[in-house]
Structures are given as structure tokens and as C-alpha cells.
Predict the 3D structure of the following.
Amino acid sequence: MTYSIAAADPDRDQVGVAVQSKFLAVGNLVPWARGGVGACAVQAFPDVTVGPRALDRLEAGEDPQAILDDLVVDDPMAAQRQTGLVAADGRAASHTGEACFAWRGHRVGPGFAIQGNVLVGPEVVDAMAEAFLAATARPLAHRLLAALEAGQAAGGEKRGMESAAVVVRQPGGGYGGNHDRLVDLRVDHDDDPITRLGELLEIRDHHFDRAPAEEWVPLDDDLTVEVAARLRGGGWLAEGQPLAHALMGYLGWENLEERWTDAVSIDPVALAHLRRHLPRSG
């Protein structure tokens, strides 16, 4: 009752999983990923021990196909289960048990493993693969979402939709820079979980991404005057207070602290947010 994609973007050092299912809170069971190691999707009677065990073996340097082959041999429910596994370098493998509900199947390509069951047909996984490969310029989370959207547009699963999730892991990529949880979003129960997941991803990007340094806007004389006036008008800049301290405080209040740059520049998204929400004072 599920379709998923486990994927890697070696150039960005990112791995992740996206999944949709006519099942409550699918993000609690199917996706597993570890920064710098790989990603795993386990579905159709998911066994929550498979993902961690597969990732442990990937981390030890084993090949994805060899890992799946061993897991299938040792799994008494292998015929009812699907598993997709991808290493951080893009090597991938997938298993579809012959007793999974039809249509069932998978597609494996450079950097991805796509699998689904109870689907309207093979066009679902084919569309997912095409969409993923066509979006190489986008961050991995958006490529994974594009694959879900394409799969649903191609007919999705026969029973409809209920929940969806996207997770992306990158070493040091999480909030604060001391863990790998770059993206971890779930829609546990919704009539259109993929659309809602996309909305959450946009909000997440707004708050937690940071523009590359070459896009930071210098706080020259004119912009410094403007930013100071807006912070002052919003009650954030007191007389004699350093501008950088006031700006940092405001960004933290707005949950934009991950977009803090330095005392002499400002992230363009943070600047646009400030202009949108703070009136200019003289």
C-alpha cells in the first residue's frame, strides 16, 4: 500500500527517503537514513529492524545488493516485504517479494531505488524515476518530493493516499550543525499528504536553509540605515545597541537564526522577511 524512493546525492553528500501510503503515519516505519552512509526504505509489512541493520552493514563497507540478498535469505517474510537500499556513493538495490499485493515492483538506477505495491501499474515507479532523474539541479529533498508527485500523478496506489514523509541526512547538516537531520518532515493523516508535505518543505527551507555566501547582501551605508530603521520601528533596536545584536535577536525571534550570516552582511531571504514584516521608522 506504499510507494517510496531511497536515494543519494553524492555531490551534496546527502541521502534520503520519500514515501507515501494509504497507511497512518508511514514516516514512522518506512524511512531510514544515515548521513555519509546511505538510506533505506522498508515497506509492505515493514520490519523496523531491517533499516538499521542494513545501514550498519553499509557503514561497514558492504555492497547494497549483497546486503539485501542476505536480508532476504534470513527473512521469513521476505515474500511479503519490499526494501530499497542506496549507499551514499549512489550504489543501489531493491527487493520486491513475490507475495506483495499487485501491482508490485521496483526500479533501480544511478543513485536511487524506487519500490511500490498496490499500485495502479508500473507507470507509477517509471514516472517516479523519470522525475527524480530530471531534477538533478535541485536539492535532494525536492528531488524526492518530485518523485512522489510524479508517482501520484501517474495514478499512485489503488487505495488512495493518507500519509507521506521525506527525510534527508547530511553529515553536520542538521539544525545547529552537530547532527545529520537536514530534513525530517511527516504528514501523518491527510487527504492530500504529498501537497501538504510540499508546503511543509517550503516552510522548512525558509527557516532553516542559508543562502550561499556569494549571495549574502553587504550591509552598506544605505542598507544599514534601512535595517536599523526597521528594527527600531519594530522595537528591536534600542539607543546605543549594536545593530548586529538587534538583528540577531530579531532573526531568532522569527525562527530564522539559521540564516544569520555575520555582522557586515545579511542573508537575502532574511532581508526580504524583515522588509515584509517590519515597517520602516525614521
Notes: The longest strand covers residues 2-9.
